[in-house]
Amino acid sequence: MNRLSILVLGFASLFAVTDHRVAHSQDIFQSQGPSLTRGHTSSIHDLSASRHNPAASSYFMKGNNGWQSNLIGPVSAGYEVGKIDSLIDELDELIDILENEDLSVEQALEAKERFEPFLENAARDGLIKVGGNAALPFFPVFYHNSALGTFTADLLISGSLRSTVLADDIDIIGFNDNFRINTSAALYLKSVGIVSLGLGYSRMSYQNDSGALHTGVKVNINQMNLGKNVLSLAALEDGEDIGDAIQDDYEENANSSVNIGIDVGGLWVSERYTAGFTIKDINEPEYDYGSLISNCSGLSGVSLDNCFVAQDAIAQGAIAGSEVYVANAQANIEASAWLGEQFSWGLHSSIDLNDKNDPLGDVYQWASIGATARLNNWFVPELRAGYSKNLAGTELGFYSLGITFFKRAELDIRWADESIDIDGTSAPRSAYVSFAIQTKF
Q1: More confident residue, 219 or 99
Q2: What's the pTM?
């Protein structure tokens, strides 16, 4: 398995994790569609942006009585890695040495001197995270009645996989002139699968000569599949590399739970600008992980070794045996302004007012600024550029570019402003891509 394949495991895990189970209405690990570039702002040219603010649907549907649906909503994928170059290569080399039972004393000492500091660094910075999300075709769906308001339905799936390293000392074991090394170092995997049904209501609550205030609420029915597992490096089967081990075992010890998250929002709309606020998961729903606590009875082989290492890590406080994910409330404000003739230029900004834990234990607080150019061109009607930063957690910054072509198709990419070496090639520490074919009002 090619070392870079670990970065695309999450793209496949989107479907593998969610095909038979369902989990927050949008994984905060990444955005969707033009929001990668514009930020979490309400754009009438982007139906998927209704997910950011429950009040936006009423704004989008103003003057359009009846039904409206999307075509192919955004499909997005992304990865994020820590600050260690060639992490997978180094781990695979360590595994090869762990399998060798015929080392000289010099080789064993060299391996201990080399890999103990590496494992300590990997435990601190050795993150690998991949994921993807997708809206089902024709979602979201809108229904507007001038007397009753706007009703929306949305169905979104997402999946993410996070891998870190649990460090341990390296022991040298000798018999006669043959030596080998051993360690309880391991990979710690956490995964989440999400399918969320969102039901929203919004309406114009106030209007004067300057503009109109739209308000809304959205109820997200979330079934969240949360799993974690520990993979002992020393117990990996002969010839099995890290990528294969993660692919085979990341869904172990998973638990599915259902809860409801409630979002509220407001959006002021005038001729030349919009300004809004949103509070997501205002009720702070909770979801249970699968438990790692076990007496290891009934297990054998690699599974038994993994269990022993997991129980040792739990006893030392390195990981939690039982865990509950609390989707804490997060507030966001947004603003957009349109300039020039026929509103040809747009400026967009959004910022989360507090950080939010994602289901896998990372923290995000996004701040974004973007610009759009509306062109009188059927082939390329809009160009986008932006910059975003995670104000919490990794504190990575991201550049982004987006393009709309044929009036409907939207391609957006975002990449981190820090690089890392992977397989001898420099690559961004994090990158995202999103594609959609969307209906326009």
Answers
A1: 219
A2: 0.87
